[in-house]
């Protein structure tokens, strides 16, 4: 049958099969990077630190922080982190509480936790020595995926291995007119093969960073600056935009109706009004889950007269694990305001032993916060208590904090908004 056997190799326009072209592309991209690279603390460290384990650690920290977070935000966090824990050994001795405090505000808190767990593993099981190749990093370090492993190995240890992140996906799909769903495993595998084939043999770390920086600053999602692009002469998407007249469907530039696993699907052909932004293409995203949570800011006069607020700690696993928050309660769908108050009052009564009544809760407003996959609305109430409150410590750890202490605690960005 047609399904049997190995699939035919993709046509040349989807590949980097000409060694001379690959060489020129590497040279052009690195020359551009050398001229305009941003000075970032982890780059400086990776270029100047003689100790390989320390280089690996520094790049690891930066890569984890940079996932889902802007460079400009990361710099301060990175500097504070490296000052506090300059080595894996130092990090291995930190408490999760300290890690969460420093991470607070960066989001996706499990990253900090995982990093610390992995540091403990390197110290206790690998004698403090970082694995030196992408394969070993991914295999031996918990939480280190293919991308992070490739970044650490190429930038810190000079291994000629590629990386594929969102920026690289975009650049490669444009360079090679890949219009099939770029989130499908088959396409992702092709892109990794391509990145591994393309990476410069003598300067792999710089090459990978250059490719990512090109995607972040020139080959941007909506308005790429093709005129200034150092690899425009190698770009198939640009060639197609400039030199191919709009043609009737099926487009003669595609490899053949439905026959190519890397071309746009026959049902969504090249749209000439989009130009190079025809690529990459993704299947429609799943909608985030909608959730509502009632939360109550409990306030009392502290012993020095300043107001204090009650915060409680979340469970040590799951979303926002181990972080502190105002007492909160997930709400069932479609609950009326009146009912909402009642369940929250019940909850607070159990917690504080205080005769909280639903009518005593003041509705302050709503705060919306988008987590990666959850569209969360906090319905915020407040309640002042005068008198002593004994908290049921069996329910979960809790403490009273001043406003200043609140901001220094390991609380999520969503709670700061609240
Ligand atoms: Fe991206 Fe344009 Fe450069 Fe092609 S020419 S890689 S589309 S910026």
Order of helices and strands: HHHHHHHHHHHHHEEEEHEEEHH
Count helical runs.
16
Please tally the β strands and state the result: 7
What is the CATH C level class of the largest domain, in words?
Mainly Alpha
Our measurement of the CA-to-CA distance between the termini, rounded to an integer number of angstroms, reads 61 Å
The major pleated sheet works out as:
7 strands, mixed
Small molecules in complex: iron/sulfur cluster
Question: Percent range for helical residues?
Answer: 40-55%
**Assembly state:** single chain
Topology-level CATH name of the largest domain: Endonuclease III, domain 1
Radius of gyration: 26 Å
Instruction: Please state the second-level CATH architecture of the largest domain.
Output: Orthogonal Bundle
Please name the fourth-level CATH homologous superfamily of the largest domain: Hypothetical protein, domain 2
Main location: mitochondrion
Pfam families: EndIII_4Fe-2S, HHH, HhH-GPD, NUDIX_4
Family: Belongs to the Nth/MutY family.
EC number: 3.2.2.31
Please, could you describe this protein's structure?
The protein is α+β, with helices and mostly antiparallel strands. The protein has helices at 19-36, 41-48, 52-66, 71-84, 88-92, 96-103, 110-125, 134-140, 146-157, 166-175, 185-198, 204-217, 236-243, 337-352, 403-408, 413-417; strands at residues 289-301, 307-313, 324-325, 328-331, 362-370, 374-384, 398-401. Strands 1, 2, 3, 4, 5, 6 and 7 form a 7-stranded mixed beta sheet that branches. A hairpin with a 5-residue loop joins strand 1 (289-301) and strand 2. The mean pLDDT is 89. Residues 171, 174-175, 218-219, 224, 226, 229, 231-232, 235, 237-238, 276 line the site of iron/sulfur cluster. The site of iron/sulfur cluster has 14 residues, from helix 10 and helix 13.
């Amino acid at each position: 049958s047609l399904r049997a056997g190995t699939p035919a190799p993709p046509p040349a326009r989807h590949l980097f099969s000409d060694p001379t072209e690959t060489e020129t592309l590497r040279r052009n991209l690195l020359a551009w990077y050398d001229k305009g690279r941003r000075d970032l603390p982890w780059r400086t460290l990776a270029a100047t630190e003689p100790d390989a384990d320390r280089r690996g650690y520094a790049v690891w920290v930066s890569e984890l922080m940079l996932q889902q977070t802007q460079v400009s935000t990361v710099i301060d966090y990175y500097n504070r982190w490296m000052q506090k824990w300059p080595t894996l050994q130092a990090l291995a001795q930190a408490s999760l509480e300290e890690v969460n405090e420093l991470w607070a505000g960066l989001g996706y808190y499990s990253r900090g936790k995982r990093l610390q767990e992995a540091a403990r593993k390197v110290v206790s099981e690998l004698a403090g020595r970082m694995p030196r190749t992408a394969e070993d990093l991914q295999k031996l370090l918990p939480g280190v995926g293919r991308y992070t492993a490739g970044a650490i190995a190429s930038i810190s240890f000079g291994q000629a291995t590629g990386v594929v992140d969102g920026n690289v996906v975009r650049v490669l799909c444009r360079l090679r007119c890949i219009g099939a769903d770029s989130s499908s495993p088959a396409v992702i595998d092709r892109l990794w093969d391509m990145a591994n084939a393309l990476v410069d043999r003598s300067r792999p770390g710089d090459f990978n960073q250059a490719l990512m920086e090109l995607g972040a600053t020139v080959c941007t999602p909506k308005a790429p600056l093709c005129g200034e692009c150092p690899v425009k002469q190698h770009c198939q998407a640009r060639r197609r935009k400039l030199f191919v007249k709009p043609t009737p469907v099926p487009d003669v530039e595609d490899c053949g109706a439905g026959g190519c696993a890397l071309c746009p699907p026959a049902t969504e052909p090249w749209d000439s009004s989009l130009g190079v932004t025809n690529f990459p293409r993704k299947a429609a995203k799943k909608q985030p889950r909608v959730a509502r949570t009632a939360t109550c800011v409990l306030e009392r006069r502290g012993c020095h007269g300043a107001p204090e607020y009650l915060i409680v700690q979340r469970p040590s696993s799951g979303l926002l694990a181990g972080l502190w928050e105002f007492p909160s309660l997930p709400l069932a769908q479609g609950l009326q305001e009146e009912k909402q108050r009642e369940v929250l009052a019940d909850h607070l009564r159990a917690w504080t032993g205080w005769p909280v009544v639903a009518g005593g809760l003041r509705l302050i407003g709503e705060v919306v916060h988008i987590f990666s996959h959850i569209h969360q609305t906090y319905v915020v109430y407040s309640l002042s208590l005068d008198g002593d409150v004994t908290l049921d410590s069996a329910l979960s750890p809790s403490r009273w904090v001043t406003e200043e202490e609140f901001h220094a605690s390991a609380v999520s960005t969503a709670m700061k908004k609240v």
